[in-house]
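<context>
A single protein, sequence plus fold
<sample>
Here is the protein in question:
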Amino acid sequence: MKRSTIIISLLALLLISANGLPIRLVRLTIVNKSGFPLEIRLTNEEDSNSFYYLRLDEGDRSNPIEKIFTIIPGRYLMQPYYIELWDPVYGYSCSEPGSRILYAERNIRITILECDYSVPRFNLGEPTIWKYSTDLKYIY
């Protein structure tokens, strides 16, 4: 009787401790150099019910805003939205870039530049930071 009680207790303790296993997370750093406040939608490709909406304040090339987010690793569709106060007379119209696939399997840094900005092919700048532009389809 004592032996079965000890075994059941150990089994219950094992099940309780297994529930608290840590989840591996990835650090996503986004630098806003667009000149507009940004909202970014990340939608998991495997599970469309798993998504993030990220918000960044306005930043530009001379004063960039950098924000760090913690997300679950995966493959995401990334869609930035440039938030602008549009005035029909003096407003600035910015066409929205399409979705890009973000492979978030490790810590990653992304710079979001002005809308309609094309990254030069040979002068990409800092190699550890990815630039979001109209030319890219995949972000690793």
